[in-house]
Amino acid sequence: MAYQRVFGIVLDSVGTGAADDANRYDDLGSDTLGHIGEDYAGNLHLPNLARLGLSNLRDVPIQGVPVVKSALGCYGKMAEISAGKDSMNGHWEMMGLPVKQVLDTFPHGFPEALIHQIETFSGRPVIVNQPYSGTQVIHDYGEEQLATGALIVYTSGDSVLQIAAHEAVISVEELYRICEYVRGLVNGPEYLIGRVIARPYLGSDRDHFTRTANRRDFSLAPTEVTDLDRLQLAGYQVIGIGKINDIFSGTGINQAFHNESNQDGMQHLLDVMDTDFTGFCFMNLVDFDAMYGHRRDPQGFGQALMEFDQSLGQVIERLRPDDLLMITADHGNDPGFKGTDHTRENVPLLVYSPLMQTPNQSLGTRTTFADFGATILDNFRITPGEGESFYQTIKND
């Protein structure tokens, strides 16, 4: 008997150790969960994730997170095959669309011709135009932007073009309009960029600038059909929470909720769990990445994980007998590693249902994130496009 509702939670950037190809990305030695555990020196308390098998799936357990003798569900890891280590790549691959083409990155800033187009359309000068930490760039240039009305344009090691602006100087609506225009400039063939990100902020001076929850991602539209489309075309409901709707440009999604924070996202999830639907609810919790990974803040990252773990207990309690819960991540962002960019890591895979027939099974290391979506489609008796289903291990009959 198929699970009637599948809930997929993506813990944005919560990697579990360097992938086999990490050397290609200069990420050997990265381990988001491992380094957070070390920083907490055994005081990282994640009882709900632990009983799902979070340390069981690792070669070396996370400090403070015990290996359990009998995990509630099944556990494993997933390796990424997409080119790059951005959120868009990871989510698309989970939904059966690995990103095979290498997207453009700009380690020395964007071409002057592109910057000129942005300036001409917006009527505003562009400042910075180089790779930068998102919080550091508003600290260093926010006062200039506040005084001049310029656009802070910056990038990272990923295929992203980010535009930061103070909401009192450039309204959120205007910033979105500018980003929509830029999105149209970078869909190829001259420039092919994964995401254009609006980064509004508030505050009176450099010591008080903070990014707001009005961030919006203008992603490259999926280039082919995804598993979300397949579910929707088969008549199932698809619900997106957090930046899921942005990542897939709204395609394949029936209903979307914007998150103000991880806690807000978890409340959206609990609200959805109280409704009757048949299909897939897909959620991204971005605070781990945006607030702690990029800022290289292991203490804040760990605290956010512990807060999520508390809310996870409520989710587990509310699962109906024919619900399936799947928890994973889209990449790493090791707060104990060099730099401020994402890290090429394997991601955890935790799967649980009250009716699962054979819990406490290892799912091994899946050779692509696409196995995640293939399993969901298999549950609903839909033929997957990519990936190998592990439904037979987690089935409820």
UniProtKB/TrEMBL annotation:
Main location: cytoplasm
GO annotation, cellular component aspect: cytosol
GO MF, one example: magnesium ion binding
Cross-referenced Gene3D superfamilies: Alkaline Phosphatase, subunit A (3.40.720.10), Phosphopentomutase (3.30.70.1250)
GO BP annotation list: 2-deoxyribose 1-phosphate catabolic process; 5-phosphoribose 1-diphosphate biosynthetic process; metabolic compound salvage; nucleotide metabolic process
EC number of this enzyme: 5.4.2.7
Residues noted as binding Mn(2+) 1 in the record, renumbered to the chain: D12, D330, H331
Residues the record lists as binding Mn(2+) 2: D289, H294, H342
Keywords: Cytoplasm, Isomerase, Manganese, Metal-binding
Cofactor, free-text remark: Binds 2 manganese ions.
Pathway linked to the protein: Carbohydrate degradation; 2-deoxy-D-ribose 1-phosphate degradation; D-glyceraldehyde 3-phosphate and acetaldehyde from 2-deoxy-alpha-D-ribose 1-phosphate: step 1/2
Keyword Ubl conjugation: no
Alphabetized SUPFAM superfamilies for the sequence: Alkaline phosphatase-like, DeoB insert domain-like
Role summary: Isomerase that catalyzes the conversion of deoxy-ribose 1-phosphate (dRib-1-P) and ribose 1-phosphate (Rib-1-P) to deoxy-ribose 5-phosphate (dRib-5-P) and ribose 5-phosphate (Rib-5-P), respectively.
Protein name per UniProt: Phosphopentomutase
Annotated source species: Limosilactobacillus gastricus DSM 16045
Gene it is expressed from: deoB
